[in-house]
From TrEMBL:
Pfam families: Homeodomain. Belongs to the Caudal homeobox family. Residues 260-319 bind DNA. Residues 327-338, 461-475 have a biased composition (Polar residues). This is Homeobox domain-containing protein.
Amino acid sequence: MNNNNNINYSSLISNDHETGSSGEPLRIFDASYNNYSIHPNSYSDYTPIPSKIEAFDYNYWPATNTHNILANQTIVAIDQAQTQQSLNPTLETLVPIPSVQLSQLNASATISATHHHHHIHQHLYPPTPSTPPPTCNDSSTWLGSGNYQALHPTPTPNPSTYRHYSNPCSFYPTNNFYDPSQPQWTSQPTIPIKFESSYSPPLYFETGNHCQEQTSKDELSNSPQQSNWLKHESSHPNSVPPKNLLNGNQLTFKRKTRTRDKYRIVYTDQQRYELENEFNLSKYISIPRKSALSLTLSLSERQIKIWFQNRRAKERKLNKKRHDVTSSRQLNNSNDVDSPSDGGVESPNYYQNYTSHDYLQQQQQQQQQQLKSATAEMDLSVLWCLGPDFDKQTVSSLLNDSYCVESGLTQSITSNWWMSSPSKWNNSLMHESDVYTPRSVMNELEPQSPTSASIKRPLSDASNRTISSRSLTNSKPPPPPPPKLEFLTPVRSHTPDIYNRVSSSVKRTRAAPTLAPSSTFETPPAQAIPSASSAIDSAEQVIF
DNA sequence: TTGTGTTTTACGACCTCC
DNA sequence: GGAGGTCGTAAAACACAA
């Protein structure tokens, strides 16, 4: 399979290569990031969260306002100096740090290793942290006084002993570094590094044991022997690997298995939140966006890609579940229309009949029950901003954080805080060329019509590639969007239903490939973006 | 505290497209 | 052949009832 891949491990680390190759400079967080509060989609169903799996369903994740909260310029202002001081000069040169530079950049050694087979192309766990792991008391981490993780109740295990790889503190890079206690924590240069050689030109490579824990099978399969063993090992977990896999040389091969305790990490709420935001805006991440998110969240691009894959799978699962429930309901509908036979899953009709008033009421009840605290008078829109997947303590902590409330939360619900129209944006704050911008903002800036998008985002953007290429062979119009459901949110979205960029109805199915490949392959960017883009265009015409 | 079910990361196999 | 897609699944992390 990939036996002939003689990986030059000395050339695996580079700075963000994709950015350079794509021609689209990285956009680091921008102050205007905070300004976007348009709920990214008008897919406004509401689910009373009967189960956790429904939490993100129908995309009522409050992309905008949560951004407002968590990336609030005021909140992170304190961090600016520290962050920029600690940033390495290279990064500063490449990406002028905006005021809302996410401060994890100073340790954003998002490093992924080479892979040479399919999507095994990126290490998930970079081997070389650039700085010692920050402590949870590190004031230079997220959100300054609104320190995110300080608000997050995730316990802080002893790094030397913790076995679960929840972030020991707020720093994202800890997600990527399995073992912060390793000596290299203190011995490596402070260089944010990406480690994904599928695109990257070689810069340098740090050999040593730090790669051992994080290297995947395929990535290490640089010899037939190793490959064969790894293949064999997958079915014989207890077999003994060849010696050269254990301690052969500097590249001490040690398989990363799924059976070892170091199996997966848990993303922080902030990371998940950003990913959810991106997902709400587009079910498929483009290469530039992936690169930007990678840098911003200190996750490898592979992690982001896999997260999106898993997220789509979750969406499909939910849709299927919903469809099944709807079908069963229809069967039983003649006898008992109101029978609560959903088991917690709502039909589309349910969503349609579920008004925002109901939502607010239920949200209020839920939160009052959950918090059981002085938050009885909380502004529901604040809670809404936090999204469904923030745990109760996080919500409570944020609500009780006066700094947060004063600087971000309350602002997020005011009508004039968010400048919904791009024309209102301060151009001095928007330098898209060097500033990471949420996709929702990008959408406002760059309506992704098939023409303009493909021009503005050339080759590196897979979405646009598919727009320009696949759409040529796909004469079938995109499927009609599902019925939109009204959901009056505290900040009413202007954005059209980007959800419909991905239509599960055109999903390619392996079991029944009855349609022509060009029309059955799930290529949402190709099939859906044009319609969504035109909708965006028309929506912006309304806005302006 | 423990058992159990669910959700979240991550991977492998296999697919299509370019 | 490489990219990213889905699908199925492993296993950690988590939630919650008993």
